[in-house]
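Narrative summary of target 7.
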Amino acid sequence: MEPKNNRIRVLYSFPHKLGAGRICYTAWQQVNGLAAAGADVLVCSASLARPVPDGVKVKPTLARGKFRIPYRLLGSMRAFGLHDRIVARRLEGLANQIDIIHTWPLGALETLKAAARLGIPTVLERPNAHTRFAYEVVQAECDRLGVALPPDHEHAYKPDVLEKEEEEYRLADRLLCPSDFTARTFLDQGFAPSQLIRHIYGYDEKTYRPLDGPRAAKPGLTMLFVGVCAVRKGLHYALDAWLRSPASEQGTFMIAGEFLPAYQEKLAAQLSHPSVRVLGHRNDVPELMRNSDILVLPSIEEGFGLVCTEAMGSGCVPLVSDACTDLCKHMENSLVHTAGDVEALTRHITMLHEDRKLLERLRDASLRTAPEVTWTAAGRCLLDAYRQVIESKTGHLAPVSHAPAR
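Modeled conformation, tokenized:
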């Protein structure tokens, strides 16, 4: 990985299948954004699910050709650990060819130790809030609702996961926080502001775009929820608010996502209301967003809430909790309520039901905000964060990356 045009040289370590779903999609888009911003990127991912841009080098850790080591064979924690040890070993021969290392949770411990020994700056991605906070707040809400989490659920308390992640937090030069909410959960756990650095996630403007023509006039609102239907996403608050609002008399609330079975059983009465449509997992989310008036995301814990920016780019107004991205500005491009405040969310739904001019104003502002939060913009923001970390760690100005000509 030789320096090119004095660009920042990044080793991007990802212990999953780059380009698959959820965080794997986020990581893939980060790599795309970094390449577009002009970074030289070497990806060490467990395997690769989608192609990366020309110029990005990929050296898988748990795959060779079409052969992949299945996680179910090793178990996730062992697979993450194996990936981590492989990357750490590779660093010895790459030390003079890397300006910064970008790591992800549970696959970073040995890499961070090796980087510290070699004097290479490091960042650790925080796609969600501090894990201790997430465990506690989700468990408290499950207890309040009487919903049991399966032992293997990602938010069920796992002491080995928490212990490893907290050690990674300690070793990284900076923790990459995509929202103020995420950063605040670390500050509340005693982290210094100097240990955190902000960046953003984005959306794919080629996929998420508004309707080509004017919206058809209709008497009722269409409200959409997109995501895993789990307690942490606060869907129960959305249902409470929707059914309390007169919007439910003429409108439609569509729910796109898979349910935790115990949670679906708990909400069965509300889900059976004539205005509520349970769609299950969908592959046409962009189209659903284009044809919906508002997106609701009343999460009690989030890292960023990708669906918020995707909704903005689709002309679908976000109604979100303050645990979601701070790119949503109350009464500017969105309506924002305090997490768990059903009365406020009810008022917000009713406001847009009764005041379509406000809905149009917020929709127009969302569409104006959207170009600032594409994955390309996120790549530039991330590269700037790298530069700050490099300069803080080394005391020298970081290389200036220039995006290649298009």
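The chain has two domains: 9-202+374-394, 222-372.
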